[in-house]
Each structure stands twice: as C-alpha cells, then as structure tokens.
Amino acid sequence: MFFQFLICIFSWLTFASAAPPQTKLGCQSTCGDVSIPYPFGIGVGCYQNSELALECNKSFTPPRLLLGNIPVRNISLLSGTMTIAFLVSFNCYNKDGTSSGKFSQKMTLASLFTFSDTRNKLTAIGCDTYAVMSDGSGDIFQSGCISFCQNSDNVVEGSCSSIGCCQTAIPMGLKTLNVSLSSFYNHSNSWAYNPCSYAFLADSEQFKFSRSDLKNFTGIGPEIDNQISFLAVLDWVVGNETCEKAQTNLTSYACGDNSYCDDYHNTNGYRCTCPYGYEGNPYLANGCQGLCLRQGGLCKAKKVTTACIRPWWRWGWGILLLLFVAIAFWFYGKLKKRRALQRRQELFKRNGGLLLQQQISSGESNVEKTKIFVTEELEKATDNFNENRVLGRGGSGTVYKGMLPDGRIVAIKKSKLVDETQIGQFINELVILSEINHKNIVKVIGCCLETEVPLLVYEYVSRGTLSEHLHGKNFISSISWEDRLGICKEIAGALTYLHSSLSTPIFHRDVKSSNILLDENFKAKVSDFGISRSVPYEQTHLSTLVQGTFGYLDPEYFHSGQFTEKSDVYGFGVVLVELLTGQKPISNTRSEEEANLAMHFISSVKEDRVLQILETRIANEARKEEIQIVASLAKKCLKIVGKKRPTMKEVLIQLENLRVFQHQESLRLLTEE
Ligand SMILES: *[C@@H]1O[C@H](CO)[C@@H](O)[C@H](O)[C@H]1NC(C)=O
Ligand SMILES: *[C@@H]1O[C@H](CO)[C@@H](O)[C@H](O)[C@H]1NC(C)=O
Ligand SMILES: *[C@@H]1O[C@H](CO)[C@@H](O)[C@H](O)[C@H]1NC(C)=O
Ligand SMILES: *[C@@H]1O[C@H](CO)[C@@H](O)[C@H](O)[C@H]1NC(C)=O
Ligand SMILES: *[C@@H]1O[C@H](CO)[C@@H](O)[C@H](O)[C@H]1NC(C)=O
Ligand SMILES: *[C@@H]1O[C@H](CO)[C@@H](O)[C@H](O)[C@H]1NC(C)=O
Ligand SMILES: *[C@@H]1O[C@H](CO)[C@@H](O)[C@H](O)[C@H]1NC(C)=O
C-alpha cells in the first residue's frame, strides 16, 4: 500500500499519467478491435472532413470498420498511416493450360490518401508470373516484376527474390493503382505445384513469403466477397494545402491549439503532431496534453513553439522525494526492529516468562537446569517448523523433530492455542518436569517463551507413542509380550515414583497410551504433564474441573470431580487392558455398552472370556499364568476405589512379583531339562 502510494506520487511529479482521449466527445471510439481517433469518425460531427468519414458494419464478426468499401484494420495518428485490406489479384489455370479464373484489382483513393511508398511493395507470387502495376490509364507509370521457378525445389523458404516470389517498390504519391497478372506458359510447366499467380500491394512489415504460398495462398487480410486480401498501408493528410496556407483560414485549419503542423513530403497536404513532451490527439482542440499542461499550465502560456523542457524544480522534487523515501525506509527498518524486540519481550511476559523467572530466582525448583532458547535457535533446529518435521499432533500442540547446534536430536512441542490455560499448562509442565529425574519419564531440556506460542524442548524418544504401536495401521502387533510386560513395569515404576518418592507427590492426571513414548529398546517414557499437579501428602485429593481423556477417565473422578492418586491407577488399568487386547480404549466397532474398553474387559472377565479378547500375538506368546495375573491386576485397577483399587505402589509390587515368577519358571524349566 505504502509503496504503491509512493510510486503514484513519484510518477505524478515526474511522468504523465492516464492517456488522454482520442475521440471527439460523444463519438464512437472503436469498431471491433480497431480504435477510431479524430480526425476520423463515424457520423456527422465526428470526423474532421467528409473524406475521413468511416462506417462500422456490425453484420460482420467482429464488426468491420470501412472507409467507403475498404476494410480498415488500424489507424495511426503518430505516423499518419492507415492499414487497409487490399484485394489480391490472381490468374489461375487448369491443367490443360486453359484459364480457370482471373482478377485484377484496381483501387482509386480519395484526395487525402496515397499508397505509402515507404511501407508498401508490389508483391507477386508464382512460378510463371508476370505482374504489372500501373496508374489507372497506364499513361503516367507502369512497372512490374517477374517470378519464375524451374521446379519447386529452387524456391527458398522466406526469400522473396524472383524465384517463386518477387517484389518491387512503388512510386511516391500514388493514388490509383491497377495490379494485373499474366503468364508466359499458362503455368503448364509448374501447374502441379503452382496453378495460380498472385499479385498485391503488401505492407512489407507484414509480408513473409512461404513456399506453401505457391500451392495455396490465403493472404492475411479479411476476406471480401469471398476473395482473399492482404494488408497494405495508406498515408493520409488532413488538408490539400501546405501548412502555411492552411493556417491562413483558421475555420478550416485542422490542428488543435497546442499542436504543430507538418507538411506532408509526398504531395500537397499537412498533418498535425504534438510537441515533444506532450501526448494525445493533436487534431482535438486541447488534445495535446503534456505533464506541464496537466500540472498547472506552466508551458501553456508560452504558446507551443518549443518542446516542453521539464523544469529543474520538478527534478529537484523527484530527488527530494527519493531522499525522503530513503530516510523513511531507514526509520521504518529501525522502528520494525524495535517493535520486534518489544513484541518478544511482551510475548515472553505473556507466555509466563516472569512466572518462570520467579521460580528460578526463588530457588524453589530446579528450573535453572532447563535452558531458555531464543527463537532463532529453534527455528533453525526445525527448519522453520517445516511440515515434514512433524512428529505428531496432539490436543495440546504439535511436536516437531529438531536438531540443536550441538547435534542433539530433540522433540519440540509448539502449543496450539495461546489462551491463558494453555500457557499455564506449558509452564506447569516445564516446572514439574524440571523437578523430576527418572529414567522412565521424558526429560525436558528447555523452552522458548519469546514466540507467539510458547515452545518446549524435550529429549527425543525415537519410536513414538505406545498408542501408535498398539493401534497404528503400520505397527499392529509390533511389540512382543515380553516387551509389553517391561513397558507395564516401567510405567508403573514411573507413576509410583511420582506418587510416592517426591517431596510433594505429583498426579499425572492424563495417563494414556498416547502419552507413553517408546525408545529404541521399547523402554517406556511417560510424557505430557500439561495438566499434572503437585499435591502435598496431607491432601488426599484434588478438586478441579474434570480434565483428562475420555476412555481413560476414572468414573468416580468423573462424577465427583475429585482426583486422587487412584484415578491415575485407573488410567494405568486401561493401558494394561490395551496392552493385553490391542484394542482402542473407545471403539465404535464394539457394541454400544461395550464401546468403552474398560467395560468390555470387565464384562469379559466376569463371563470368563478373557482369552477370547486377547490380541492374537499375546494369546500365542504369553503363559496362561501370566495372563491371569496381568488380567486380574488390570481388573483391580479398574475397580471402584471403595472395593480396594490398589495404589500404584501395590501394582508395581505385583508386577515385580511377576518377574520373580518368570524367573522361577525358567529355573523350573532348566532343572527339568
Ligand atoms: C454491411 O455489410 C453487408 C454485407 O456486405 C451489407 O449487406 C450491409 O448492407 C452492410 N450494412 C451497412 C449498414 O452498411
Ligand atoms: C495498430 O498499430 C499499432 C501500432 O502500429 C499496434 O500497436 C496495434 O496493435 C495495431 N492494432 C491492430 C488492431 O492491428
Ligand atoms: C494460354 O491460354 C490462353 C487463353 O487463356 C490461350 O489463348 C493461349 O493459347 C494459351 N497459351 C499456351 C502456350 O498454352
Ligand atoms: C489494368 O491494367 C491492365 C494491364 O495494363 C489492363 O489490361 C486493364 O484494363 C486495367 N484495368 C483497369 C480497370 O484499368
Ligand atoms: C489452404 O490453407 C488453409 C490454411 O492456411 C487451409 O484452411 C485450406 O484448407 C488450404 N486449402 C488447400 C486447397 O490446401
Ligand atoms: C483537394 O483538392 C481537390 C482538387 O484540387 C478537390 O477536388 C478536393 O475536394 C480537395 N479536398 C479537400 C479535402 O479539400
Ligand atoms: C475558410 O474555410 C471555410 C470552411 O472550409 C470556408 O467556408 C471559408 O470560405 C474559408 N475562408 C476563406 C477566407 O478561404
């Protein structure tokens, strides 16, 4: 916008703007695609002289502009020319040498027109061709050209030089032209490739000879009564006299107030032009418009005798303007830089940067271990948050893979929204994670708060989420039973650590398979602490708005709104069932009352159908005893709290016992062998 405005101002100061009109007010300005400048015009009052009256015949498509009966293709005020259609003369023979058709074009122009001797050439095409042009009677001049070819191979493509094609200049000031053709041998030698001779007046700028013209010449002008035509150029003037004479009678003088008169070189007559620096139609009263005139009439007063020289002050303004623009840009750049800095500081504040700094300075947490990144570092690391770096998209944001300058591969989470709660969750997760150091909990490396949305940087865990491996199309059954047991124990270990080993326990509050990450050895890492809370020991529950994921939500928490450590156990129970069955926590392929996996599982246990709902791989790999133990453990986890839902610690102990049991089993097998 700003830039366009500048350009506009600049051109106003130095150059002319919109093109001035070419036609008298209220007159038709075009016919088809041909424009009609004054002194030409259609209808009384629209032309300067009756010889310059045109017609527009709309029964043709496109409409055809006519001078008398000659089609007009173009009118130029600048060069005083007009492009017209000129009928092609022909002389055709049958194979036996008898005539099959002959036509000679004769054209007589009105007193203000002449055939342009500089643009036109008499042009003939044929291999047995003798073209003659003359004025009407042949008294004044007669001329022509001859074209021959021995065979069609002699003909040079594009070259009009007497083999198949010839051209000759026309005299100055010609007003009548008769073009006729004759042949020497009635085309009997060349009939096969050239049955006709053609001759016409051609605008040499538009004529290009082609070998195929010998066989089938079509012309480039409009067809007139089924006859082909070519384009020729006429010169025109506006009066019969010289300028000097014309200016003595101002009622008939054709040039506008501020235009020059030019004598026409060929015959008597004159034309008008705009002075240098002006443009427009010199035949209209005030048709020539220069920038001087349009910007205050500086030159008008001097009567148009010299070309308008752009005054020095206009250049001065131009230079001043440029200077001004340069300075403006410089300031703009500075301002932009400052704005950007301010914006970053604002964002840092809004994104909880102050909260974080408080935490750091109060020494309450280990946050200082986490690095605060600047925007550029993370943009570089993720290739400007390139789409093909996306690792996953979750409810809370998008996770990108990135590489830090020191070569470390990291996962970078970009918050989705920028509302207060999201930012709160971000800082919460950062603070919680930076206090934790456990091998089965994802590590946070740093954060960036200067961006529009805050960013968190984690260690990169290569195999993605447990959910993907259990339910993703490409991974189904990718994890062995043994690894699954390991994963159970690792999650249980991590949750037990959160619940019982910290000075203030942490409830994760969103335990689900898509929040469990797997490393290259299928070791589990619990992640996503966005809604987790530190809850002092003496406080047994947390009353909050119900948050979490449907399918993993403890029904009791759902009803009471009171989250206890056992609600995490419920979520863990659902993950256990997922590991056993490979089914999704919520699925509409199951019946309505069993869409919820936990319900489905419990009813299967009750009806003793557990084996039937196991994932095939598990049914094959796991021992019956192991399945019984894990299934009953899962059932306990999904129990109502009052009915002895175990704590995470108890769950862990049972899972550890399973390992002892496994160990004993293998010992038993060994001793049996
Ligand atoms: C337009 O051209 C057609 C065909 O040549 C002719 O019959 C008709 O009279 C012309 N119309 C006018 C208005 O000149
Ligand atoms: C008429 O001539 C001008 C200049 O020679 C050219 O720019 C324009 O395209 C021509 N118009 C047609 C319809 O041939
Ligand atoms: C050529 O044709 C004309 C009539 O069109 C005829 O009078 C003449 O004899 C012919 N000449 C030759 C050489 O065939
Ligand atoms: C044109 O010129 C040819 C050859 O000079 C002549 O025979 C013919 O009668 C002329 N045509 C007209 C219409 O004057
Ligand atoms: C002549 O050429 C035109 C196109 O240039 C084509 O439409 C026409 O059919 C050709 N006629 C013959 C007889 O080859
Ligand atoms: C030009 O002069 C001729 C004769 O000298 C005359 O017949 C014709 O009408 C004049 N044309 C104009 C436009 O004055
Ligand atoms: C000036 O031109 C007008 C219009 O062509 C004409 O009527 C008038 O007689 C001319 N005057 C002189 C003095 O030639």
Assign the CATH architecture of the domain at 468-667: Orthogonal Bundle
Strand order of the largest sheet: 3-4-5-6-17-10
What is the CATH superfamily label of the domain at 468-667?
Transferase(Phosphotransferase) domain 1
Strand residue percentage: 15-25%
CATH level-1 class of the domain at 468-667: Mainly Alpha
- Kindly provide the radius of gyration, computed on alpha-carbon positions and rounded to a whole number of angstroms: 48 Å
What count of helical segments does DSSP give? 16
In round numbers, the mean pLDDT is 84
Might you state the CATH topology name of the domain at 468-667?
A: Transferase(Phosphotransferase), domain 1
Shape: elongated
What is bound: which ligands? Answer: 2-acetamido-2-deoxy-beta-D-glucopyranose
Report on this structure:
The structure is a single chain. Among the domains are: 81-236, Jelly Rolls, CATH 2.60.120; 351-460, Phosphorylase Kinase, domain 1 (2-Layer Sandwich), CATH 3.30.200.20; 468-667, Transferase(Phosphotransferase) domain 1 (Transferase(Phosphotransferase), domain 1), CATH 1.10.510.10. It contains 16 helices and 33 strands. The longest helix is centred in the middle third of the chain and has 39 residues, at 312-350. Residues 33-34, 73-74, 76 line the site of one 2-acetamido-2-deoxy-beta-D-glucopyranose.
